[in-house]
Amino acid sequence: MGPIYEKTATSPVNIAVIKYWGKRDSVLILPTNSSLSVTLSQENLQSKTTIRASPDFKKDRLWLNGVEEADVTKNKRLQNCLRETRRLRKEYEKKLCEEVGAENTIPLSEYNVHICSENNFPTAAGLASSASGFACLVYTLAQLYELPVSDTELSKIARQGSGSACRSLFGGFVAWEMGSQDDGSDSQAIQVAPKDHWPELEALICVVSDAKKGTSSTEGMQNTVATSPLIQHRIKHVVPERMKSMTEAILKRDFRKFAEITMRDSNQFHAVCLDTFPPIFYLNDVSRAIIRVITEYNSSNESGELKAAYTFDAGPNAVIYAPRENIPEIINIIAKYFPGDIDNGNEYFTDPYHLFS
Ligand code: 2P0
């Protein structure tokens, strides 16, 4: 038996406040608009990945949530992430050979890997499981390979696993800049602000359903780009301005502005889904009732300040952003209006996000 090299890491989920929806290149995963997200805490929602490399392994193998994938060579996105990280490792090995000699350089780039990855939350229920999963794959490989590269550099590889994964390499507030190059060299994630920039902001996740979603994001966004006139308006005339305003709102910790843009962007994302032909429905009756309850809660506030913001991804589950002081009140309201509707019995939890390290 030869040696086994092993690394384990975890990655958090991110929830977009400016949504990514649409690709201009579906192999490199280049988006049609920039997006911005908040990274949630790792304890409640995370992917955990262990990767082993050994000269004895006969082929690359993958276990997702304990089940082995039949043929990893068919998983193009995984192959792309593996190929790109191995390429960087190969370059690093060349450098190591020059510095410390070939006899002291482990040729990890040539070894097959065994990858075990699991989520502690429902997969594919619109809770960004592919984001944390691919971020974790690329981050763990980078650790195993000891790659001397920045997280922004790694974000370009994670992006090729799943677009939103590039944002999960950072904590706090993260922008995915769409870039303009055809080779994807400037389509990358950057941190807008670290999580301790705005420690009062919390996210409350309401699991409306943990069933697998009907239309995958990948398929859904392709259909939207192919059929929706509204998405063109969003790409050209809405998102560029919103990215600037949202960045300003975050830097100034302006919850009113943050909340309004968050809700408007969620609404527009679901509007382009409805504008897709045939239409895509991610919200259900409970989701829409949550929108009404939060709208009512905000308008009942005499000062005119917004107290909470809802956002929904490609599924019916709500994420509610609010200053920490409002969270107990929001939980009471949700519990009152939705005593049994949410996740087979009232499952919701506060989730103070924190930096990925
Ligand atoms: C987002 N979503 O910005 C948006 C909002 C869903 C709604 O990113 O095809 O799973 O793997 O690049 O990243 C979901 O898209 O799609 C997503 P692929 P991904 O978070």
From TrEMBL:
Swiss-Prot/TrEMBL keywords: ATP-binding, Lipid biosynthesis, Lipid metabolism, Lyase, Nucleotide-binding, Steroid biosynthesis, Steroid metabolism, Sterol biosynthesis, Sterol metabolism
GO BP annotation list: isopentenyl diphosphate biosynthetic process, mevalonate pathway; sterol biosynthetic process
Pathway: Isoprenoid biosynthesis; isopentenyl diphosphate biosynthesis via mevalonate pathway; isopentenyl diphosphate from (R)-mevalonate: step 3/3
Diphosphomevalonate decarboxylase-like N-terminal domain residues: 12-188
Reactions listed under catalytic activity: (R)-5-diphosphomevalonate + ATP = isopentenyl diphosphate + ADP + phosphate + CO2
EC number of this enzyme: 4.1.1.33
Domain Mvd1 C-terminal: 203-357
A GO molecular function held by the record: ATP binding
Protein name from the UniProt record: Diphosphomevalonate decarboxylase
Organism: Acaulospora morrowiae
